[in-house]
Design a protein that fits this description.
The structure is a single chain. The chain has 394 residues and is mainly alpha-helical. It has one domain. 85% of the residues lie in helices and 0% in strands. Helix 2 crosses helix 9, helix 6 packs antiparallel against helix 7 and helix 13 packs antiparallel against helix 14. The protein is globular and about 50 Å long.
Amino acid sequence: MKRVLSNSVILLVSNITGKIIFFLATLLIIRNADYTEYGEFNYLFSIAAALAVFLDLGIDKIFIREISRDLPEKNNLFHLIVFKIGIYALLAAIMFLWGPKKPVFFILLSAVFLKSVYNACVCVIEARQKMAREAFLILTGNIAFLVLVLLKPGNIVSVSYAYLASAALQVAGGLILAGPVAMRAGSFSKIIKYLKAGIPIGIIIICGGIEFRLDSIIIGSSIGMQASGYYGSVYTVMAALMMVPNAFTAALYPHISSGRDAGKLDENIARSVIILTVAAIAVLIPGWLAAGRLLPILFGKTVPEQVPILRLLLLSVVPIFFSASYIFYLYSRNLQSKALFIVSLKLAMNAVLNIILIPKFGITAAAWVMLFTECIGAFAFRQIYIKNRKMNEG
């Protein structure tokens, strides 16, 4: 557990610093573009990010699990990247025929593809417990993005190119730091094996990724780009907070996947849940109290609807943080199919409620829907964990 905590600290510090830098860049964009311009950017980015889940399909999670158990598995990185290139080409062709006819969209789609390749490289780095290398890549990419955004912060085309360039820089660094052995030809049959094993995780990732962006897509398509700008600007605050569970579980997952300290599994999971939940509450209380004063400082402009939205999204952070360790426990024990029903149910509820409520009640409804579905998900993931541990003990 000490190694998990030390690696988590490295990633947490780098993620906090990186997210602060990225958040500063986002604030520059929001401050220099009006809400309609930013709303269009948020809408197009949400579509690209939702499509990005198809570049993973659960393979990354299986890949890092297998490397954690057998380091030579990293040799399959080359074929994993080739697989992602094929999926990207298919998505780009489909979107060219039926997607948004905006140059910005295809720039962003290319950027999220490069981010997916970077994530594959990070799998090798994390499995080798080289968190300092990942920290370097996080900071390098975000600093590059901020510097490029400073050139034309109010131009969404320039901002999109800045995001693309920063992603390309991270890919280049990731390929170098993952190690030369990682790019030797492995067996493509292993990628098929990863894909088959990762199908439940892949469906979970697809459902979760679409759910995470669905509200912004529905807002933009149903009530307009200005409303998308109002909601999307506040959403960036909550999204920035996701680096906390991401950093912690990035260190926890390889550790529990490897089987080390198996006798202390329940203790390690319990501690991680407590740490993440306390962190969420520590953010929620001051954020809730200061919401009305915080938004004008951040964005330079605000509308009344944004204050309750921020408070609701901060409340949603608590169940998200609480459930993170339970979800990665299921991944580590090849029990991802048990989580599939919950994630699918969350997506269905999210879609139905947002489609019905957003046109009637506006952007506040999207925040209420997120809070509701995340609470249900957190409760269900814990129940699955408890039931599985009791079965193992029996």
